[in-house]
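Quick one: structure for this chain?
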Amino acid sequence: MFRFFSSSAIIILFAFPVSAKETNLKSTLEATYNNNFLIAQQREKILKYNESVTQQLSVKKPDLSANLSQNLDESNGKYNNSANITIKQLLYDGGQSSNLVDAAKYTVLAERELLIKAEQDNLLKAITVYMDLRQAQANLELAENNIKVIEEQLRAANNRFEVGEVTRTDVSQTKARLALAVSNVETRKAILTGKSASYLLVVGENHGNLSTPPKHPEIPNTFSKAEKIAIENHPRILAARLQLKVSEYRIDASRGIFNPTIIGSITSKTGTSISSSTGATIQATIPLFNSGNLRSKKRAAINDKKISKHALDIALLTTRSNLQIYHSSWLAAVAAIKASKAQIEASQIAFEGMREESKLGSRTTLDVL
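Got it. Here's what it folds into:
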């Protein structure tokens, strides 16, 4: 049932085993799939529309009914009992029932695509909140480490102040940076608490220690490739196409409402005052005049098709627009990561060089910090 993103999510789900002491991306996605109310709601809608197919099919199948009656015969003071069993079968209705059955089936298919979309949307939210939570934890660790560095800077500044190398102003500035770093830690703690609450809202359970997620699935490096995949597979578009098909079947059904409806029936009668008998009847109903109701229904069906066509256009435009935004953001993020890694490597080399210079006496401990 999953497609593109959903398939990728399944790959991630089984990428590594679950540990009871940690929360990984696999367990997060599993919990979201099982706990999310929006996904559960869409599943129930599919079950509802499945029943509509059964209801439409029943119109084309035989209908069996029984009628029991009892009345008093005043001439002899006795009760007369009778029983009728009737079987009715639709013979012809201008194709209305067949088209409505097809419309109901395509409605179910459209709702299945919407279920896939609900799964994708909420699994994406789960992945996003998982990564946001890891980022918040990393930022907090960085802020706490920054306090340790500034505390060491303050100790070095105090030592240099005692020997007259720096002024009290220099020491006070370091103390101010330390106070700001402590404040930053508290802010990061508050952010982490908020991200934990978001995790609970999306996933439906609290998290443990977060582990490093597996490598993400391959993503097309050009927009044209990504667009081709999206247009062919995105459930928003597929659902809109199926809904357009539903509207076409409803138009075909509306054309049949001007045709005769023919029903055949067989009735078996028995009773205390009558002899048993069986009869067959064929009844044809032809619409002649109904104050414009039938023509209005046909116009409404045609209008529904136009609405569905516009919905498909919106789905295509929305998907292309979102894809362009997200794909360009993805490429920018990849470039930013590469630049950040290069910056880290350069900073690491500079740090190593400064530490070696401090060993030779050309740099101070404060310079290294």
